[in-house]
Amino acid sequence: MSNFSKEHISELTRIFLGELQQPQTSWILPVKEPFIDIYGEGVTPIDDMFSLDFGSVSAMDTAHRAVFISNLTQQSLMLWIEEEGGCISAQFGNNCSEVTLNNGGEAVRLDLFFNSNTITEVTINESVTIMSEMVESGSRKKFTLQVKIRTLVAFPYMELDFNGLKHPAPHDFGIIDPTERDVIKYEPCKIYVKNVGKKDLICSFAKVPGWLNVGADDQALTNPAQEISVGPDMQVLVTFKPLASMDFFGPQNNQVQLITNDIRPSFQNINLEFSVIQEIESVYVTFVEEPRAEVVPGGVREFEIRLLNWGKAVAHLYQKKIPDIIKVEKDIRIPGACDGKPGKMDLSAAIAGEKLKPGDHRLLLEFSLPDSKQELLEIPLKVHVVGIITDPKELDFGVVEPGENCTKTVDIRSTDGRELHISAKPVSKLIDYFTAKEIKSNLLEVNCLIQYNPHILKSFTGYKGPGIEIHDTEMDYRLVLPVKFHIAAPEIVIEPKIIKGSAFKGIKTKKSFKILNKGDGKLKIETVPGKEFIEIINDKKFTIEPGGCKIVYFQVDVDNVSGSFVETEIDLTANIPTKDKYKIKVDLEIKPLAGKICPRCQMVSNMEFPFCSFCGYDIKEEPPAAEDMVLSCPVCNRKYGKVLKFCPVDGNPLE
């Protein structure tokens, strides 16, 4: 209760029930006037007034402080804010300007808000008046809270000079010729930016048009949006100059935004207006957009090119380099520009598509302008030749085996995405060996079947050329699809070609020869013995793969052959393009049996052989078999030693 005055204290009547050492048993009788206590950080009581040191805040900023008010009377006390300071606003903690506090020291928070537009460092003294009223007695009293505030300048703050003016004004650069690259003669627009604040001022420019060049202190900005930093008490000269460019013609009016971090909202985004007229005294010709033409194969398509003349004089164009498939009118005159608008002309042209393949092409038209600084006008032309394309672009059948079907499919599409109506057939040279049919929409099946024929194999070895003619019946366009194939051709090698040796009376003599295929086609063989005493032991018909070989075994039975020599042939039939008949000579000397008895199988083998011709046993050291030591089977004619009584093959008694 230190805020009570002496007069108030003298009016208090204390009744003690006990000693002073027991203050908890004391009572304070109610006072007649409202009393409050304002407390918090920086609050000092001075009689019925209170002082608050708000502290230091940034100028042009907002700040907040809070204090507390408690009721020191024995009645409910109603408080309201009667008067606020110029830059101070106040409200109670429940966001209202009026509150009621119960007796017994109930308290409420008082929020104080600073909000000022001052831009200087000053000390501000404000006051907030709080009115109080005792609810039961109606007694009222005012309390004053004196607030002391110090402002600090800690922000960027600028002063501007617009070509000697304090406010921006539209700047007109007048008329310039974009063909003149030297624009030094055009007086720039100057803006002086000075920072009188205490922090760096950051400036940048937005929406700068392409015909305007921005510089800072005589240095061009590499990027119009580049930020410029201006330190405290510093100044920067910003210049705007027109930039000659062929991309801008006629009147140009643009607003450029000056964006800053100045504390004042109205100085954070300033619009600067610039205007210029770009005119060309002579001629300068452009085209509106890259022209495009679509042409049917073998047809002619007319199209137009919109030309613009930005110069004041009439433009005369002369053909310099025009593709021979394009026809363009020769007398080309384009009127001059007027009132900032270019002169216009639609140039008529025609293109023939017979020399272009289906698909997209880019051509270039060149015109000379002798009366202009431009000298040359180049117009790129996109040309689409309507047609059909295939995937794949060539059918490669690889190695084709005669007599075997080989099928490929082709995906056919139109170059412009339209639905196709097609038919297909082989070229006349291949019509006997190829077929083509559409199996479903835009999908073509091509079949190759070449029957064996020596002439065919000679004619089409390594063929690559025209294959399938595809006809677009709607556009009457034909495309020949190339084919590539190689007919497999075998190559026969016989080892040996002449079989010599001996044949023995009384036994069947085995002989053999080898057939090799050194070609890339399958070799098909059929063997035919020339005489009845020769028998092919293994397959008489067989196929040899490329790079493979086959050993042909045969046996000779000369028991019924008279004389001492046998001369005969074995015939071979092969699928060789140049020759289909081969003969293998067999020249044998007929000798009486002179053999050895195999100790393993008891069969009698030729003495010339080091191994048994029946079981392969090594008999080269065995003694010759005497005539009286040999018996024969009357059924199979096999010879055995006399050790055996019956033929082990068919069980017949040996003789």
Number of helical elements: 2
Supply the helix-strand structural class.
Answer: mainly beta
Largest sheet, described in full? 6 strands, mixed
Q: Regarding quaternary structure, how should these chains be classified?
A: single chain
Distance between the termini: 158 Å
Detailed description of the structure:
With 655 residues, the protein is mostly beta strands. The N terminus is likely disordered.
Search tags:
655 residues, mainly beta, six-stranded mixed β-sheet, five-stranded antiparallel β-sheet, 2 helices, 52 strands, 2% helix, 52% strand, elongated, disordered N terminus
Outline of the structure:
This protein is an all-beta fold.
